[in-house]
Queue: 2 jobs
Job 1
Amino acid sequence: MKREIPTKLRKEVYNISTAWLEGLLQASDNAPPMKPMHSVITNRAGKKHTVLIRPIEEKEIDPVLEFLKLTLDAEYDYYDIVGARVFGELLAIKRKRMKDEYFFLGLHNGKLVGIANGRLMDDEVNISLHTITFERQINAGGVLFYSKCWYCFEVCQQEEFWATFESYNGWMLAGLRMALPSYPWPDMQHELGGAKIFYLTRELWESSIKEEYLQQVARTSFKPASKELIKKNEKLIIPKELEI
């Protein structure tokens, strides 16, 4: 807002490079890298799918943004709101406007089957943002959500993982099946719209979730990916249609 200047000035107009402004506005990017991981997932029909989970590459941001536009008109199981928010969160990486964000792709033979993302609030707390899948019958959602927990406790060495859920499917898959407790609400609120916080502690992760969740829900393991599997999924294949 303009105000009356309370003194005489030798110079009344200052020109400033936008590069100086960017130094004030740009978010930090100190999230530790995660090596590609994989899971062999068995679906309800007994068919096995090897899903690679790895960080998105800069060259893949624009194609994934274009694909996410398809979710905006999907009035089905909250795909529209989740898709819109994931679109904004990915765009925030491109525009450098979200602190310490991580963004994982789930790939099956190179094809994009899901996304999982979040950010580091501080050294202690990892914020889960969203998990979204794009192909039926692979059951990749549980492993994608799990990958964020793994990243929190095994890579970042943080103490708590905070999630919230827009959809019933998400809550059933992770909140209920991980038996996540919640903090008192509205005293404590998740940064995603002030919703309820469902949290996972390091103690609970080590005592049960780390091993039992994969076996009981996903019926799989979570291991570092081989060079061959990484190469097989090197080229990102974007679906032509939204399969939900």
Note: The longest strand covers residues 111-120.
Job 2
Amino acid sequence: MFPTTIAGSLPKPSWLAEPDRLWAPWRLSGDELDAAKLDATLLAIKLQEDAGIDLVSDGEQARQHFVHGFLVRVAGVDFAHKIEIGIRNNRYKAMVPIVTGPVRLEGRVHEAEARHARAHTRRKLKFTLPGPMTIVDTIADQHYGDRAKLAFAFADALNAEARALERDGVDVIQFDEPAFNVYMDDVVAWGIEALHRAIDGLRCTTAVHICYGYGIKANIEWKASLGTEWRQYEKIFPALAASRLHQVSVECRNAKVPISLLALLDGKDVLVGVIDVPSDEVETPEQVAATLEAAMQYVPKQRIHACTNCGMAPMRRDIAQAKLAALTAGAALARQRFGG
């Protein structure tokens, strides 16, 4: 009961990339960088195992960014001439590559780190990929001229990599869709169908992660503007409940999302975010257990997993490690109190 996992990313070691920031530049290159990425992947798994995490992740150690780390092996995407655009409905600006032609996967993207992770843990392994809608929102399109068409093209590329990851021995494949709480009409119109294209033919467990973003200044300021209740999920949760995905990952700790909205995910396993990521304050086991108890009022306890709110990539490593320990201690406390 209450198995533990993380949303995806962990901070990178300072010898691999500049710490405490997104899109952190690599500190190595060539063969040294390739070897260092695998070393960091092994370290991420070890940190999770030592903390007692049940379902471990590669920590996204081999990717500079959760979206662009996938795009580097996609034909039709020009990284040489990036332009600045507003993403997440102009919440903040970023330098992004350009779609200049038909999108097609050129070869394996994450084979090295997925196989390395699988070879070095006996625990269940989760691997994360960016969702089609979030990719579309994090890239400049100069070819398709239609966000839905572009999303389905990326969904085909994602599906090819996801099927290969399943063959690599990955147990859970999760698609990250922070854009789902920005473009709610599009989620219902074509966003979930694009995810269905991405998971087509998979036999492993599939999940979607939605959240209000990393703990960066632009996201914190945006959340402060959303009022006392964040009800964006009220529109998309019923559609997710009717989807073919097995799990939905959602932030709950320190979020202003009414916990009662979890009832709209009827029939799904819910990865309840019990660890906040914008805050450096380390949760206590009591606080983690309390969040799980609140979720139990709306989700059967057998369907609840204990998770982080979002990725930890920009976080200090010592704080992330302490939060992992709090996550497992709080889940253990909840099992003791609510098991049976």
Note: Residues 30-51 form the longest helix (22 residues).
